[in-house]
Design brief:
The chain is mainly alpha-helical. Helices cover about 65% and strands about 0% of the residues.
């Protein structure tokens, strides 16, 4: 969360300076918007085909072992292959759950904040177009992430698995609670959304 704190501090300084000098309103906010919208046409998930049930490969592992925080633990290393495969499937489902939390509780709300012109200097057509593009992509990605999880659960017989939520969103809410002003809470939301690629 250190990167988030740094970005929050910069954004809040930018907002304070914008009150003193309106010509500086767009500096940091617009940089973040460029980061969020850059190369949308090349990365937009909505332009790709929806995931199909018949693309699931039973013989392939669902997740990379290197991404597990305990991948070098002796119990995992010596576990049976069937147990390892189940663990990797659970890892994939947990990763998807966190992705859903980020996109529905962080990225999408941040985009709407921009569309509602909560931040200074975001009333241009470029800003509205960028955030609209991001919302289309994020909404479709939510759909295919849910579909991918459903297919994985069906094929791996994990329909009853209850994946716990991550602590990312509660931590963001906790950070927001430290600041009294609505614009400060909105700034934290936008800063965290901008830092997500670095944090993941």
């Amino acid at each position: 969360m250190n990167q988030v704190h740094t970005t929050v501090d910069k954004l809040m300084m930018d907002n304070r300076s914008s009150v003193r000098n309106e010509r500086d309103q767009t500096s940091w906010s617009k940089k973040i918007l460029h980061t969020l919208s850059e190369n949308w046409s090349s990365r937009a998930q909505v332009k790709k085909e929806e995931i199909a049930n018949n693309v699931f490969l039973l013989e392939k592992e669902d997740f990379l072992a290197d991404l597990l925080p305990f991948n070098e633990h002796p119990l995992f290393i010596t576990a049976r292959e069937t147990d390892k495969r189940n663990i990797l499937s659970c890892g994939y489902l947990a990763y998807n759950n966190k992705t859903l939390e980020i996109e529905s509780s962080l990225i999408a709300p941040a985009c709407f904040e921009v569309l509602h012109e909560v931040f200074p200097g975001v009333d241009s057509e470029f800003c509205k177009r960028s955030m609209s593009e991001a919302l289309v992509d994020e909404t479709f990605h939510i759909l295919i992430t849910i579909r991918a999880s459903q297919i994985t659960k069906e094929h791996r017989k994990l329909e009853q698995l209850n994946v716990p939520k991550s602590n990312l969103i509660p931590n963001i809410r906790k950070l927001q609670s430290r600041y009294p002003e609505p614009w400060q809470k909105s700034t934290i939301l936008l800063a965290t959304a901008e830092c997500i690629p670095i944090m993941q």
